[in-house]
TrEMBL record:
Keywords: Hydrolase. One of its GO terms (molecular function) is hydrolase activity. It holds the Pfam family Abhydrolase_1. Residues 22-260 form the AB hydrolase-1 domain. This is Alpha/beta hydrolase.
Amino acid sequence: MRSRWLRVNGYQLHWIEAGHGPAVLLLHGFAGSCADWAPTVAWLAEHGYRALAVDALGFGRSEKPANAPYGLVLQSDLYAGLLAALGIERATFVAHSMGGKYALATAIRHPDRVTRLALVATDGFVEPSPLTIIGGWPVIGETILWLSAHPAVVRAFLSAAFHNPAPHVNAELIERGREAISGAANRRALTALSRRYAATDLTLTGLRVRLHEVRAPTLLIWGTQDRVFSLHNAETARREIPGAQLVVIPQCGHFPHIEAVRPFRGLLSGFLAQYG
């Protein structure tokens, strides 16, 4: 597995990559990074796929510009631009949480680039919380992030996102979560992202009413105990995305690819094989 960087549409993107074969692009959730997908990248490579897990602009080791026009338009253009720059005509998008709405935006705005969608506890079907909106306020937003970066707070947030946190919320995962919201560059980028919430929301951008345009076969994977996006949101996504199939994993929270590795990989393997 190797790290790669490339300037796309004027922004430096980082991703990890392994394998050869049909392309699979993996997108992480909020306050995450490509490291969340590293075991899946290795597994996909072993099974005949070229897997690329990308750090979204403003996250991980990608550039963190404070004044970028963060939003679904920018992010979807970056993913389409990255594929074009790498000579990849089309890819399956596997996306978790926040990454799910970026994948959906790409499927709507750049349909020729998206072969399939595997959306894991996807964002895009909930109302914005007051904390999300307040997070975009100058000074207040950065203060909230500074306080949230305390290891005890990170542990509490992560523990709430798992059905059974004990085996998974370890020092490594806590440190990754802490790093994602620590440091001036990270905090400025996350505050800028929150400040432009309307541009990152499927409904407010007008993209949600265009979900009927999605033609890529879509698999929705959800945990029964997801406390971040409930099964109500899963059912809404299933209704609004044409032909979407919803599979619910029992005794699992918001991170099926971490908490329920075997069933998650079984579902993804079958989905990839089903559509060639």
